[in-house]
Amino acid sequence: MTFAPRRETSFTAAKSREDLADPKQTKARRNNAAFQLAWLDRIGTPIELTSLDFGGKLWTLHLPGEPFIEYQLAAQKIAGATPVCVAGYGDGGPGYIPTESAFVQGGYEPTVALAAPDSEARVMTAIRKLLANSK
User: Fold this and answer.
1) Residues 135, 109: Cα–Cα separation, whole Å
2) Sign, CA torsion 46/107/34/31
3) Same domain, 70 and 32
4) Global model pTM greater than 0.85
5) Do both 58 and 14 map to the same domain?
């Protein structure tokens, strides 16, 4: 799957380059700018999501970034009686993967997440495909 980039001015490559080059910026901001530039450089490269079916007795999903717990809960609903374990950081590129409602609510994770708010729809489409044969 692929993610869309954030559209806010503070997430553009130009702003990230500016912040990275500015010694007056905090180390955290400069670090985030470097991550953002690396992410933008590979934004079009698909990230592979994988799953492992333990004979219908258990599913594991391997998701990118740091996915919110809502993805685990949604996967469990899709799988029904089959337990689902979700492991994150299959690819650290996007960082946090908040739900769409989390972007509206705000907080630390949505503020620094590198992928756009439509990430939830993209991740859920991938989860549905991975668990298509779970019932």
Assistant:
1) 33
2) negative
3) no
4) yes
5) no
3 is a domain residue: no
Domain of 60, in residue numbers: 46-135
Give the pLDDT confidence of 105-134 residue by residue, as tens digits. 999 999 999 999 999 999 999 999 999 866
Edge-to-edge strand order for the sheet containing 59-62? 50-53, 59-62, 84-87
In this structure, the number of other CB atoms found within 10 A of the CB of residue 63 comes to 26
The token pair at 66 is: 């740091």
Tell me: do 62 and 17 sit in the same domain.
no
How far is the C-alpha of 90 from the C-alpha of 41, rounded, in Å? 18
HEC states along 89-120? CCCCCCCEECCHHHHHHCCHHHHHCCECCCHH
Residues 98 and 119 sit within 8 Å (Cβ to Cβ): yes
For the CA atoms of 103, 92, 1, 58, the dihedral, rounded to the nearest 10 degrees, stands at: -100
